[in-house]
Specification:
Largest interface: A-B, 43 and 35 residues
Oligomer: heterodimer
Largest sheet of chain B: 5 strands, antiparallel
Strand content of chain B: over 45%
Strand order of the largest sheet of chain B: 1-26-25-23-22
Number of strands of chain A: 2
Number of helices of chain B: 3
Shape of chain A: globular
Helix content of chain A: over 70%
Radius of gyration of chain A: 24 Å
Helix content of chain B: under 10%
Shape of chain B: globular
Order of helices and strands of chain B: HEEEEHHEEEEEEEEEEEEEEEEEEEEEEE
Number of domains of chain A: 2
Radius of gyration of chain B: 26 Å
Order of helices and strands of chain A: HHEHHHHEHHHH
Structural class of chain A: mainly alpha
Strand content of chain A: under 5%
Structural class of chain B: mainly beta
Chain lengths: 277, 406
């Protein structure tokens, strides 16, 4: 346990710079977005009210009040989130391959540590998870700040205030990152963890057998996907909707756990017996 | 411990931030306004068995997420939108009750109330399945299951739909079972040389030998009359209830094309009663009755209640199938605004007519009326209303799409 924590901490220290950069970009871009979108709305309101002599009531009737949703739907808000997702996706590969590059390959030292080698796998996957949750948590913290900025810029009668939850609920894309309930949070991020574990296994296969390993990795991933969706395929094509939806959910969770266990076992085996430096 | 501070800080921030979000969203669940049925006159006990199902949309924030709700005499209950409830799904109340009672039989069955038939002995289900081909749909098959309630036996089989080659789409409108014969009433979309047309068909399937014993089309347009269109409607009944008769309204329309417009003129309307057991057709004659497309009419098994809207009056003409006689017509005054009286839900049960408007918002009021179908006497008259109208609720839309009487 202590070795595992040491490794997690060690890995975490290696990504803090990248992590801080992502957080910084997100914060700056989104705040700029809030200011730009609010100002656009205010400019439009000014133009209509003072140049076209529209009354306030007519303006609100035809253009509506400004809500934070307009900001959330702009590229200023979604862009940095997409960047962070891409960053994490990229880092899933970098977290392994960076250990193999350079003069004195770092993985050599990692593998020589007096602890079970599976801890390396656990530490790396924990890091991906912490990084992801960190980004989500940061977004949840800066959302209220951004709303304050908008409140400061747009006068009361021109805006509708929404809570963080209402905003998240109105954007289907956001509910994937910030699900509605804790159950969904566990299911969504559990599925994410599963995908990462499959990718890690594929990466380790490549590191063990090089070119042949790429094929093995692809086959393993395809197999994992087939096992995962097998209940859905059966339901659709063989059993004609035999299972009730809740039974299907339980079956899918069981399948997910089976694939996760298989990935961990396979990765452990590769790290212990087959890995080459 | 000092070298772990970054790690510890990140974990604490994550737990606090995400934790706060979910604790907050659990405690500050969105408050929906409470709807009640306000009594204007009559006996409030009359609406005790009434259940209205609909959806509520808050239109203030341009965010059109609607929530399903039920309104009864006791007030309104909103469907929970929790994840598990969404996974389980929210089938119509009738289907939900059947699922609870006959869990095995209901596996793999569609959630459409019209596909089911229930009486004391059997629960029957019939649907038409097909495969989507690259050019057209094919392999039309009846999917039939009948549960014998006494011994729990399930008799299920599939069989080919006759003349499947011409079919494009089949929609099952009603399922009935008389003795050992299952009857399906379907709306078939057929294709003939790139021309599409609709037909209503009645298929009778003998359960003992699993063969089609009778099959007929109700509205075939006579050849060579391209300007004529025939609409066929079934008079509504309680969805799963057994009926010995089907009441069919056949409206013949002539399409008139002149230089300015294309319009349709009704040239003939026939009301036919089809006896499911003897397969005999009988014409029903109600003088001066012209049914519109509102489909308000209702058949309770022995009496047909023809309903039409004339301005703000709902005119009800009963016709008894037992002695083949037109009863005394009466009319009910709706208090909805002049031009928005359309969109009503009607049901006749146990000698009472239940009527509810299907739309309500801050400007439009929705009626709820209960009347005695024998005398036309109004037993209850009321309106849907917000429980505390003093509160600012902003703009909203309420659509009622289903009405049940328990």
């Amino acid at each position: 346990m202590k070795n595992y924590l040491k490794l997690v901490n060690f890995e975490l220290n290696r990504i803090t710079k990248l992590f801080a950069v992502l957080l910084g970009i997100t914060f700056v871009t989104q705040i700029v977005g809030v200011i730009v979108v609010s100002r656009d709305y205010l400019n439009m309101a000014n133009e209509k009210l003072y140049e076209e002599m529209m009354s306030k009531a007519v303006f609100l009737e035809s253009f509506g009040q400004m809500s934070f949703l307009q900001i959330v739907k702009s590229v200023w808000f979604v862009g940095p989130i997409a960047l962070c997702i891409a960053g994490v996706a990229f880092y899933i590969f970098i977290i392994w391959y960076r250990d193999w590059v350079g003069k004195n390959t770092f993985i050599y030292r990692l593998l020589m540590l007096p602890t079970t080698r599976l801890n390396i796998f656990y530490a790396k996957i924990t890091n991906i998870l912490i990084m992801t949750f960190g980004l989500v948590a940061f977004q949840l913290i800066i959302l209220p700040i951004e709303m304050l900025v908008m409140k400061g810029m747009v006068p009361n009668e021109f805006r509708t205030d929404m809570s963080v939850k209402e905003i998240v609920n109105s954007m289907p894309e956001l509910t994937i990152i910030i699900p509605n309930s804790v159950i969904e949070l566990i299911l969504y991020y559990g599925a994410g963890l599963l995908v990462v574990s499959i990718l890690f296994t594929a990466i380790l296969m490549e590191r063990s057998f090089r070119w042949k390993g790429i094929f093995a990795g692809l086959i393993y991933s395809a197999l994992a996907v087939v096992v995962l969706i097998s209940p859905l395929l059966l339901q659709e094509f063989v059993l004609n909707g035999f299972f009730y939806p809740i039974e299907l959910l339980v079956l899918e969770i069981v399948m997910g756990l089976i694939v996760l266990a298989a990935s961990i076992w396979m990765s452990g085996f590769l790290l212990m017996k087959k890995i080459t430096v | 411990m000092k070298k772990y501070w970054k790690f510890a800080a990140i974990i604490i921030v994550i737990v606090l931030s995400i934790g706060t979000f979910y604790v907050n969203s659990a405690t500050s669940a969105k408050q929906y306004p409470e709807f009640v049925i306000q009594t204007h006159s009559g006996d409030a006990d009359e609406i005790k068995p009434l259940v209205l199902e609909g959806s509520y949309t808050d239109t203030t924030s341009m965010n059109y997420v609607s929530t399903n709700l039920k309104i009864t005499a006791d007030g309104s209950t909103y469907n929970s939108r929790s994840f598990l409830d969404q996974v389980i799904g929210q089938p119509p109340t009738v289907v939900k009750e059947l699922q609870e009672e006959y869990r095995t039989f209901m596996r793999g069955k569609d959630h459409l109330v019209d596909l089911f038939f229930e009486n004391n002995q059997v629960l029957a289900y019939a649907d038409v399945n097909y495969k989507m081909g690259s050019l057209r749909s094919r392999d039309f098959k009846f999917d039939i299951s009948v549960l014998n309630k006494e011994d729990g036996n399930i008799n299920s089989f599939t069989m080919e739909v006759p003349d499947g080659g011409e079919l494009e789409y089949v929609f099952v409108e009603d399922v009935q079972m008389v003795k050992d014969e299952l009857t399906l009433i379907t709306q078939n979309t057929m294709r003939n040389n790139d021309e599409f047309y609709d037909e209503k068909h009645i298929y009778t399937i003998n359960m003992a030998n699993q063969k089609i014993s009778n099959h007929k089309a109700i509205n075939q347009v006579p050849e060579g009359q391209d300007d004529t269109r025939i609409d066929v409607q079934l008079i509504r009944t309680s969805p799963t209830k057994a009926n010995e008769h089907l009441i069919i309204v056949k409206t013949e329309k002539k399409v008139i094309e002149d230089s300015e417009s294309i319009r349709e003129e009704v040239i003939n309307q026939e009301i036919i009663s089809y006896n499911l057991e003897t397969k005999e057709k009988e014409k029903i004659n109600v003088p001066e009755l012209r049914l519109d497309e509102n489909q308000l009419s209702f058949f309770d098994g022995s009496t047909i209640y023809f309903m039409t809207l004339e301005g703000q009056e709902l005119v009800v003409t009963p016709y008894s199938l037992v002695d083949d006689q037109v009863g005394q017509a009466f009319s009910i005054h709706l208090f909805g605004e002049e031009d928005i009286v359309h969109g009503q839900l009607t049901i006749v049960k146990d000698g009472k007519l239940y009527l509810a408007s299907s739309q309500m918002n801050s400007n439009i009021n929705a009626d709820v009326i209960v009347a005695d179908v024998k005398t036309g006497e109004i037993l209850f008259k009321g309106q849907l209303a917000l429980e505390d109208s003093s509160n600012e609720h902003g703009n909203f839309e309420l659509y009622m799409h289903e009405m049940f009487v328990n």
